[in-house]
Design goal:
about 425 residues, mainly alpha, elongated
Amino acid sequence: MLILLLPALPVVVVTLVFLPLRKILKQREYRYLFILLMSTLGAVFVFEPKLGMPRDWDLFSFAGVPLALFGYYFLFNCRSKSISITRIVLLSVMLGCFSLFPRVGNQISEDISVAHFVGLLDLDKIRNRIGRAILIGYYEKLGKDDKVARLHHRWHALIEKETLLTEAVEFIKQNKFEPAVPFLYRFLSLYPQSHEAWQKLGFCYLKLKEYDSSLVCLNISDGINPYNPYTLYYLGLNHYEGKRYREAKVFFLQALGIDSLHVLAWQKLGQCYFAWGKYDSAHMFMAIANGLNPSDVKTLYNIGAAYFEDENYAKAEELFLKVIDIDSLHSDALNGLANVYMQVEDQAKYTAVLLRLATLDDASIKLLQRVAEYYLKLGDYHNATQTYRRALQKGLDSVYIKQLIAKYPELSAQFLLQAPLHDSSESQQ
């Protein structure tokens, strides 16, 4: 592996045999390069041996920088009558050129290149799911269905097992967290070292408000694959939901230390400061989150909600209106806007937002009742009837409607015109 990083390494080693190594290492520049070299090689081979895997070749190659620097600096500065510097340099250049020939040949021949790629995929089957998808997609794009079929046959067992994770991800995208959990457990029974599955399981438990189980799963994911900004963010979110704001702040800062563009981490960090009553810092972090993604409705809504909690109603109204401009059917933003107008006692705007909310499919029974009562006050029995009927479809007690009919004869007529209400006992007769 080291020869791949420095093809001239054998020349350096042979040359060292004929030179006073101790005398050389007394020089400051060589001592510095030697310490740097040992540190990077130690990081690769001792502290994090997984860096030697093909998928982390970009990280592994950093160890080659001090190795090459030490080797070539040594060759160009060695002074010995018995050694020809010119010959050593030429030999090093030739070795470097020769080391490129297999790579060039590998890239010219498709069969050799693919065989090499498949060999690398098989070295780490669990983590190379994306690589398999890339190769299958490559052949599909070329229209080579026979090769696609052969790859599917070769990796059938792996692909079948990975379908479990795919199914879980689809459930998570649809916010169906409970059905995703069994798929994740089945996948983890096959691949217990999958940090991604542990992370998603922890996220599901977080959404299901099972915070202890979530914390266990996220800690396992963090142990298998540390320094993942999403795992750290979810750990922070777990503590935030439990109102452990100091612990949450630590994880949010760790996530931001790795990925400074993590919008949700900035946002939740701001909300921690809101909880502590440090509004200047909270506004600063919220502004950073908004600046990173000014058109993201989720970020805008959460910032607006934070301003509402701070009783900064003007700023909350501004942000809720921005959300509604982007997504006119955003029920949370409309609810937030209605609450703002209720607090500032703007009855006209409050009523207008309520009427708009009532047109949404996910309008609650309580909201529909409030809107229907507003129509009753106006004497608009037709719209009141329509609104009450929607509330009935969502589960409003029909006894309540019968009481209204007794109180408002005009409403009763409207109900009789559309469809009279019957007791379950009457319908059975």
